[in-house]
Write a structure and sequence with these properties.
The structure is a single chain. By secondary structure, this protein is α/β, with parallel strands linked by helices. Among the domains are: about 100 residues, Nucleic acid-binding proteins (OB fold (Dihydrolipoamide Acetyltransferase, E2P), Beta Barrel), CATH 2.40.50; about 190 residues, Rossmann fold (3-Layer(aba) Sandwich); about 160 residues, Rossmann fold. Helix content is about 40%, strand content about 15%. The chain has 25 helices and 21 strands. A seven-stranded parallel sheet has the order 11-12-10-13-14-9-15, with helices on both faces. The chain has a six-stranded parallel sheet with strand order 16-21-20-17-19-18, sandwiched between helices. β20, α19 and β21 form a beta-alpha-beta unit. It is globular and about 90 Å long. The protein starts with 17 loop residues before the first helix and ends with a helix. The chain binds adenosine-5'-diphosphate (ADP) and magnesium ion (MG). The site of adenosine-5'-diphosphate has 19 residues, from α11.
């Protein structure tokens, strides 16, 4: 073991064969150092038995009691329900998979000790599939002496293995000190913390293996000095890598895009409305950037319905007028097609062609489209992720526009940039998002971008009135749909994700559509969900747009960007299950025309506290920024930024909301390190972002 170094590959650790190595790779762990920085995402408290009276939903606890009832329940799914009682209260254990033997072991009168997460059951508090032991009076099972770390894992790589590997990695760390004195000192002076922060090595050890006497609450809340020490380092690493990214991009050149007055005017006329002041300002900001010969990197934030598409079109015209192509990338096919239709209509009078790389094309058609894209002719190329595909080559790309950026990661952004490279020239980038991000967050998460804000809605919009109703009011609502549609309006009925499975969700939407068809036989009702083929989806969407459908029953596939101004009524079922950002996006599908729009949020009682707070917020405000702030308070920024999956701002230990107060100091420190100790910055990036180096390097 003594011979091992932090740079050595994971397979030098004992227990790592080809299979485990592959799993570790999936987690981004290739060196022993990577394992050292693979930090627990949370902890379990198996150190004490929690009295049942003090257990609440979502608590993960050890409980102990005597079985007082045990029975098999038949319902949608058969399950074994075991009721357990201690001196203070009771809880039910539920097993969907169980053997005869298990059932006998959990017989009446037995004393059991269980570990699991409590949740609200139909009758009472339950634990589903807890770890369960029958307690033998003569040989009580021992509790843990310290908190148990829980690591981010992957299929087939279990906690026990991760604990074994991190123990070995910590041993390697002990023998090979990470160079940290310099940074320990810098952090000490830069961050005015009341308590002393432990140096790097101590912090890593504490976080991986909390000692038994360590106070539990700070560790659970992520506010222990060891966690703060590591959070600062991680935030610094991110900040420095984003700044370097920005510096690197700025060293490149980009096409100089100027003039274009004529096409601008033609397009304005084709739009058929006057730009809002905010739209004009943002177009001017972008035009400034495009004329400098440096690659623009600009984030355009604008609430749903603020009119980002028109801004995108005007920016595009500047590139087109200068003889360059524009790529417009949307997160869904539906949205890409809608953009395709709008841009085709708007740019017809400018003589600019739109190439849509959406939907399913025959290989021959696809080859023809790709050949067009490879030409230098200035065209608009619209698509989804298809734009990244190997065989798409751009002939003369000047501007990349990404719509609803929160669906894409930093790496995807960079990939498209590289695709459009011509020698040292990089295309300009405009990134649009309807997810309003509080300013401190934006500065940290998007340190590599300039930000424009579209803070004005087009005129003549009446704010959407939002009502929150229990689902028992369904009949009234059906009557309301009938009235709205009779007066020439259209409506959406949204059935959100109720299960992980797309099959079940699509089924739920199908059932709802059938019920509504029976209840409203005089209406033309359409159905759209994720299991339909792309062509079918777009046909239904087209029909709704052309008003040959009155009511559209949909899953959340319509969440992003869909624009049908005549729709003025939206019903969202099971609204209690959706997050604020999603509810706000969905509601943004109405209130796009002049008619008073109504959004009805249907919920199933009983409501939890968070769900109640969310629905309350929706009723109180239409302002995306306020909603984002509340969302941040309720959920934390990983999800607010919507980047948890894409990895743009997914942190191991830092939490932008919890660590908000640290951000100014971290930014200042990042500046200083970049200026005075660039080598230290590189070390930090290697420690914390090794797996993401591809984009840190660009
Ligand atoms: P989002 O910012 O959510 O992408 P859209 O670009 O889809 O918003 O615009 C919403 C609607 O507002 C569209 O129907 C669009 O044509 C219309 N619109 C955009 N700008 C204006 C404006 N300045 N005046 C009137 N209507 C506008
Ligand atoms: Mg949009």
């Amino acid at each position: 073991m003594a011979a091992l170094g932090l740079e050595d590959p994971v397979e030098r650790l004992s227990g790592v064969g080809p299979r485990v190595r592959e799993k570790l790779q999936k987690l981004g762990l290739t060196t022993i150092r990577d394992v050292v920085y693979h930090l627990p995402s949370r902890y379990q408290d198996r150190t004490r038995i929690t009295p049942l009276r003090t257990v609440y939903p979502r608590m993960e606890v050890v409980v102990e009691g005597v079985v007082i009832a045990s029975q098999i329940q038949f319902g949608r799914r058969r399950s074994l329900l075991v009721k357990v009682e201690d001196d203070t209260g009771s809880i039910a254990l539920r097993f969907f998979h169980f053997s005869r033997e298990q059932q006998l072991r959990l017989a009446n009168g037995r004393r059991v000790r269980c570990f699991g997460e409590a949740r609200r059951g139909p009758q009472q508090l339950e634990m589903v599939h807890p770890e369960c032991q029958v307690v033998d009076d003569y040989q009580p099972q021992s509790l843990e002496s310290a908190l148990t770390p829980v690591y981010p894992a992957t299929d087939g790589l279990h906690q026990a293995m991760l604990r074994k590997l991190t123990s070995q990695a910590l041993e390697v760390l002990r023998m090979n000190r990470e160079d940290s004195a310099e940074l320990d000192a810098l952090i000490e002076t830069a961050v005015a913390q009341s308590g002393r922060l432990p140096p790097l090595h101590e912090a890593l050890r504490l976080v991986h293996r909390p000692p038994p006497d360590m106070p539990l609450d700070p560790l659970f809340n992520g506010t222990h000095p060891a966690q703060i020490r590591l959070s600062i380092e991680e935030l610094l690493a991110h900040q420095i890598s984003l700044r370097k990214l920005r510096q690197a991009t700025r060293k490149r050149s980009a096409p100089v895009l100027r003039g274009g007055e004529e096409m601008h005017q033609t397009l304005l006329a084709a739009l058929g409305f006057t730009l809002t002041g905010a739209q004009q300002r943002v177009v001017a900001e972008v035009a400034q950037d495009l004329g400098k010969g440096l690659p623009m990197l600009r984030l355009l934030q604008g609430d749903v319905g603020a009119g980002k598409t028109a801004v995108a079109a005007l920016c595009a015209s500047l590139a087109l007028a200068n003889g360059y192509q524009v790529a417009l990338m949307a997160p869904t096919e539906l949205l890409a097609e809608q953009h395709g239709r709008n841009f085709t209509r708007w740019f017809a009078s400018c003589g600019v062609e739109v190439v849509s790389l959406t939907g399913r094309a025959t290989p021959a058609v696809r080859r023809r489209l790709h050949a067009q894209v490879a030409e230098a002719t200035p065209r608009i190329i619209i698509g989804t992720h298809a734009l990244f595909q190997e065989d798409v080559r751009f002939g003369r790309l000047g501007l990349v526009i990404m719509d609803e950026q929160h669906r894409f990661g930093v790496d995807q952004r960079l990939a498209l940039l590289e695709k459009g490279a011509q020698g040292n020239l990089r295309p300009h980038q405009l990134i649009m998002t309807a997810t309003p991000i509080p300013r401190t967050l934006a500065m940290t998460a998007y340190a590599d971008l300039d930000v424009s804000i579209l803070d004005e809605l087009p005129p003549n919009r009446t704010p959407v009135a939002t009502k929150v109703l229990a689902e028992t009011r369904r009949e009234d609502i059906v009557a309301r749909i009938s009235t709205a549609c009779a007066s020439g309006r259209q409506a959406y009925w949204v059935c959100p994700l109720i299960d992980e499975s797309e099959v079940l969700d699509s089924q739920a939407a199908t059932d709802t559509a059938e019920q509504l068809m029976a209840a409203l036989p005089h209406l033309r009702i359409g159905l759209i969900h994720g299991r339909l083929k792309e062509q079918e989806k777009s046909a239904v969407m087209q029909a709704f747009m052309q008003h040959t459908l009155d009511l559209l029953v949909a899953t959340t596939v319509i969440e992003v960007g869909v624009d049908v101004p005549n729709a003025s009524l939206m019903i969202i079922e099971n609204a209690e299950r959706l997050g604020l950002a999603q509810l706000h996006q969905l509601r943004g599908r109405v209130g796009r025309g002049e008619a008073q729009s109504i959004c009805i949020l249907l919920y199933k009682a009983p409501l939890g506290d968070t769900a109640r707070a969310r629905l309350q917020t929706m009723r109180e405000t239409n302002d995306g920024f306020i909603i984002a702030e509340r969302d941040l308070a309720l959920r934390g920024p990983g999800e607010v930024l919507g980047t948890r999956q894409t990895g743009a701002a997914s942190f191991r230990i830092a939490d932008l909301s919890r660590d908000r107060d640290l951000l100014p100091a971290v930014r200042a420190l990042a500046d200083r390190i970049l200026r005075e100790q660039p080598a230290l910055g590189d070390r930090l990036i290697r420690r914390w972002l090794a797996q993401k180096l591809d984009y840190a390097k660009v």
